[in-house]
């Protein structure tokens, strides 16, 4: 059996890195992409030391020319995990910075679009391709202070749904994974521009927020189902988060 290739965007940390490890363990050759080459190199070596196969490629998914050049560099692609994304700011709609909204649209919507458009011919040519897109529960519901992120992630969700319809009859399935509260090293810290206290308050009293590993487990599970099985939308939250606004906090 030939080795299948999986591209992971946003592979330098969090859910992307954790999923890359799991896909490598499942036997995929994993192409690790993100802006931070130094982190990718460390992960590439770690995967190789564990007996897996990985290659690092520094890439900003919002740079369309760079994404096209990246796609050209690949011999073939079987799986795209379009994971790169971020939240910037938690301000009300009335006062939010349009620059934050633009940046969130760039990475969460156009970044996914760029990756999908550039790699789609190779995914189709594989004869059995998978596109997995990481959206968010913010792509399905809204909450105060989350307007710009929700607007962008609703866009991510719209890409997944539209693409699945448009690829009907093609040998490519489209999986969307929508996590709720996940505690990673960077998501909330980035959102609050490095304010560690503000970031920590998101998870305050929550016994067990999801981890990057929890989400990666789900993504890898969905990707490794038989080809005819399409997990089209999977929502996962920690037990402590019954709904976006219903979070059980202890203490
Ligand atoms: C992250 C989930 O609740 O912070 O994608 O919007 S939330």
TrEMBL record:
Keywords, alphabetical: Oxidoreductase
Record InterPro entries: NAD(P)-bd_dom_sf, Sc_DH/Rdtase_CS, SDR_fam
Gene3D superfamilies per the UniProt record, alphabetical: NAD(P)-binding Rossmann-like Domain
The UniProt record lists the keyword Oxidoreductase: yes
Region forming the signal peptide: none
Family annotation (Pfam families): adh_short
One term of GO molecular function: oxidoreductase activity, acting on the CH-OH group of donors, NAD or NADP as acceptor
Family: Belongs to the short-chain dehydrogenases/reductases (SDR) family.
Listed name of the protein: SDR family oxidoreductase
Organism in which the protein naturally occurs: Actinacidiphila oryziradicis
Taxonomic lineage: Bacteria, Bacillati, Actinomycetota, Actinomycetes, Kitasatosporales
